[in-house]
Specification:
- By secondary structure, the protein is mainly beta.
- The chain folds into five domains: 86 residues, no CATH class; 93 residues, Sandwich (Immunoglobulin-like), CATH 2.60.40; 93 residues, Immunoglobulins (Immunoglobulin-like, Sandwich); 93 residues, Sandwich (Immunoglobulin-like), CATH 2.60.40.10; 46 residues, no CATH class.
- It is 0% helix and 46% strand.
- The chain contains no helices and 40 strands.
- The strands form ten sheets. It has a five-stranded mixed sheet with strand order 9-17-16-11-12, with no helix packed on it. The chain has a five-stranded mixed sheet with strand order 18-26-25-20-21, with no helix packed on it.
- The N terminus and C terminus are likely disordered.
- This is Tandem-95 repeat protein.
- It comes from Vibrio navarrensis.
- InterPro entries: Cadherin_5.
Length: 464
């Protein structure tokens, strides 16, 4: 608004011209005679160097403004008056301005999205974030790689997704009291941090004498990537096929890195071993593996035995020496179908005897002068009552048995005779017993028999 000073009008007639008074003050501020800005409520009176005056209301203000001014004349008389300015409203556009914030990975940051926005007509409010309408209540709004968390009081926080770092962009919309809307973008820079690798304890269960595939890193995490196992039970992994011994078992690593755990044969119970991981940054962490090996009922196994003994000799038997009872309690219950009593005991088998002492020691004795093969069975049981049977093969090696001629005595009447059986009390374990000489005379032409009839030499005969 410009303030104009009207000059006197001369209509061709002589007039008496009265000097116009001059303004000395506006809003209490003395004019300097130079260019000058004088502030009034909600506006400014701008005075140019030539004295021209302009009024400018404050930005986006509408309504009534009042300020005073003072004039004086050539005589020094002064007077004051008031200026009333009516500023008519116009529809001002709302202006949403892009925002940029920075937050640390896995951190959070408070958002003040309207802090640099403007709504000259008032009533500035956010209506949408990332296309989602605000409800006026507590609300979580998902954006790429993060979440805008709105509290019940309207306070906003941004939380990047776990372990994310990089740039995130999302939009928002505002409106003003007139319903004018505008949109802007939020750029969030998430700065990376060195995330620790985290190895978590594992527990697996496997049956006795079984095996189980291991996925030790399945519950571990390496936010910075590059998660790998470097050691198991303190042994460095080579990257090739590898067997790593642990207490009562083995971790078997295939060429492709697949891992299997195998408990020791017939072991049941708990096994523990450790492992170490690292990530792309070289951070390391360790955890424990607990393996529960469940017992199974293992069969007792009786294995055939073979022993060799000399004819008329004896041999100690250890029938269970090659047998097995993984569940323990291995004992012999029967030999040749005869139950053991737990005391000293002789058990007959074909052509021999198993002799059991009071302390359980066993000896085999073949029958006198027998040689050849002897077979007999036995049965065992374990702590669970499982039973199994096996055979014992005894080879009795022949020995050269001495022939034994035993003195004979007979009685005969004078001039009588008597039949002789000279070998009747003799023995030849190897067989073929025969008389070869009598009184030093070899028997050559006569049948070789053990029965003879003899008369006194006076009769000069010997008859069969």
């Amino acid at each position: 608004m410009k303030v104009h000073h009207a000059e006197p009008v001369n209509n061709g007639q002589r007039q008496c011209t009265r000097r116009r008074p001059e303004i000395t003050h506006i809003n209490g501020v003395a004019l300097t005679g130079n260019a000058q800005d004088i502030a009034v409520d909600n506006g400014t009176v701008v005075i140019a160097a030539d004295g021209a005056m302009t009024f400018e209301p404050a930005a986006d203000f509408n309504g009534e403004i009042n300020f005073g001014y003072q004039v004086k004349d050539a005589d020094g008389d002064v007077d004051s008056a008031n200026v009333k300015v009516t500023v008519n409203a116009v529809n001002d556009a709302v202006d949403a301005v892009n925002d940029e914030v920075t937050v640390a990975e896995d951190g959070s940051i408070t958002l003040n999205l309207t802090g640099n926005d403007s709504a000259p007509d008032g009533g500035l409010e956010i209506t949408h974030i990332n296309g989602v309408a605000l409800t006026g209540n507590a609300q979580d709004i998902a954006v790429d790689n993060g979440t805008v968390v709105i509290a019940a009081d309207g306070a906003m926080t941004f939380e990047p997704a776990a372990d994310f770092n990089g740039e995130i962009n999302f939009g928002y919309q505002v409106k003003d009291a007139d319903g004018d809307v505008d949109s802007a973008n939020v750029k969030v820079t998430v700065n990376a941090v060195n995330d620790a690798v985290d190895a978590v304890n594992d527990e697996v269960t496997v049956a006795e004498d079984g095996s189980i595939t291991l996925n030790l890193t399945g519950n571990d995490s390496a936010p910075d990537g590059g998660l790998e196992i470097t050691h198991i039970n303190g042994v460095a992994l080579t990257g090739n096929a590898q067997d790593i011994a642990v207490d009562n078992g083995t971790v078997v690593i295939a060429a492709d890195g697949a891992m299997t755990f195998e408990p020791a044969a017939d072991f049941n119970g708990e096994i523990n071993f450790g492992y170490q991981v690292k990530d792309a940054d070289g951070d390391v962490d360790s955890a424990n593996v607990k393996v529960t090996v469940n017992a199974v009922n293992d069969a007792v196994d009786a294995v055939n035995d073979e022993v060799t003994v000399a004819e008329d000799g004896s041999i100690t038997l250890n029938l269970t020496g090659n047998d097995s009872a993984p569940d323990g309690g291995l004992e012999i219950t029967h030999i040749n179908g005869v139950a053991l009593t737990g005391n000293a005991q002789d058990i007959a088998v074909d052509n021999g005897t198993v002799v059991i002492a009071a302390d359980g020691a066993m000896t085999f004795e073949p029958a006198a002068d027998f040689n050849g093969e002897i077979n007999f069975g036995y049965q065992v049981k374990d702590a669970d009552g499982d039973v199994d049977s096996a055979n014992v093969k005894v080879t009795v090696n022949a020995v050269n048995d001495a022939v034994d001629a035993v003195n004979d005595e007979v009685t005969v009447a004078e001039d009588g005779s008597i039949t002789l059986n000279l070998t009747g009390n003799d023995s030849a374990p190897d067989g073929g017993l025969e008389i070869t000489h009598i009184n030093g005379v070899a028997l050559t032409a006569m049948p070789k028999t053990s029965r003879w009839t003899m008369a006194p030499w006076s009769s000069r005969r010997m008859a069969r």
